[in-house]
From TrEMBL:
Molecular function terms, GO-annotated: S-methyl-5-thioribose-1-phosphate isomerase activity
Keyword Disulfide bond among record annotations: no
First-tier enzyme category under EC: isomerase
Gene expressing this chain: mtnA
Record: active site: D240 (proton donor)
Species this protein is from: Bacillus atrophaeus (strain 1942)
Protein name, entry field: Methylthioribose-1-phosphate isomerase
Length: 353
């Protein structure tokens, strides 16, 4: 099987700048931006120019490596002192996706044994590149592992964008669709539009169409009717943070889909790399949920759709309890229900986090 994949890259390291696909402008405009400062990187993450848990982690890692190049320090210990506030600053860009903190921590660890400032700067760049390289392989493996769950002609529902542009390549929840296309398995995907900022309609529909994958767009309110009328055989979503009991934070609306899936007795799958598990968090109750600007709800793509001063509640994520999750698909295999034990074993075997 060919593993050639030619989908768009969301983030690229260019030595003096970070090249990103501006996801805020899609699908109308395909624009690339050059991030040259830590403030550019912070802004790109906050304003969703780059988004999706793994892509946020990769961009922040490149951002730290880039900003570190300008640090002037007499020795490594002074270098570390000057790096710490930049790491804290980038960490404060978004609170929910754990990949952000995980990637920045990996960079910090990479300079633990550096003996010169130059060595430390080089290590940071190498580690950030390594994170991106590993993410691509992890996503490909997630896709590979997920394929066994589907059969030719299945109609599968997703929400948000857990695709190639949310990761290094392939995506998590969307990875099996790229691999299925290579194998001519003919999976069909129903993408929920994902209000308020429409990652489903703007990004997932665009990305899958670019890849020649069969996608049908629905509004979020059409999910129940579509499950029934179109004989949806599974739901697959990405994740921003997974607690050690399997509770999963993902884009707002995911929890509702999981409840519907249970009502229709449809399997509900989460696809995520090990970098999305938070071993410090025992349950979803302890995952911080980002609340975003009320204007995202009062407007659609800049057009006012609600009274300007109406009260708004705008959580960007929700928590799906592990009891509603039929399986968590990782690069190491599929977890199937005894999540606390399976996650413990997975990390004991993998020696990560
Ligand atoms: O607010 P976003 O667009 O960053 O939210 C993204 C999601 O919820 C994705 O499903 C998740 O990060 C997984 S991306 C592989």
């Amino acid at each position: 099987m060919s593993t050639q994949f030619t989908g768009p890259r969301s983030v690229e390291w260019k030595e003096t700048y970070i090249h990103i696909l501006n996801q805020q402008k899609l699908p109308g405009v395909t624009e690339y931006l050059e991030l040259t400062t830590k403030e550019d990187v912070f802004d790109a993450i906050v304003t969703l120019k780059v988004r999706g848990a793994p892509a946020i982690g990769i961009t922040a890692a490149f951002g730290l490596a880039l900003a570190a190049k300008d640090i002037e320090a007499a020795d490594v210990s002074e270098f570390r002192e000057k790096l710490a506030p930049i790491k804290d600053y980038l960490s404060s860009s978004r609170p929910t996706a754990v990949n952000l903190f995980w990637a920045l921590e990996r960079l910090s660890c990479s300079i633990q044994y550096a003996t010169s400032v130059n060595e430390a700067k080089t290590n940071l760049v190498h580690e950030a590149i390594q994170i991106q390289v590993e993410d691509e392989e992890m996503c490909r493996m997630i896709g590979q592992n997920a394929l066994q769950l589907f059969k030719k002609g299945d109609q599968i529902m997703t929400i948000c964008n857990a695709g190639s542009i949310a990761t290094s390549r392939y995506g998590t929840a969307l990875a099996p669709f790229y691999l299925a296309k290579q194998k001519d398995l003919g999976l069909h995907i129903y993408a929920c539009e994902t209000r308020p900022v429409l990652q489903g309609s703007r990004l997932t529909a665009w990305e899958l169409m670019q890849g020649g994958i069969d996608v049908t767009l629905i509004t979020d309110s059409m999910a129940a009717h579509t499950m029934k009328e179109k004989h949806i055989s599974a739901v697959i979503v990405g994740a921003d943070r997974i607690a050690t009991n399997g509770d999963t934070a993902n884009k707002i609306g995911t929890y509702g889909l999981a409840i519907l899936a249970q009502a229709f007795q449809i399997p509900f799958f989460v696809a995520a790399p090990l970098s999305t598990f938070d071993l410090q968090v025992e349950s979803g109750d302890d995952i911080p949920i980002e609340e975003r600007d009320p204007e995202e709800v009062r407007q659609i793509s800049g057009v006012r759709t609600a009274p300007a001063d109406v009260h708004v509640f705008n959580p960007a994520f929700d928590i799906t309890p592990h009891s509603l999750i039929s399986g968590i698909i990782t690069e190491k295999g599929i977890l199937t229900g005894s999540y606390t034990e399976e996650i413990e074993q997975l990390f004991a075997e993998s020696h990560v986090n």
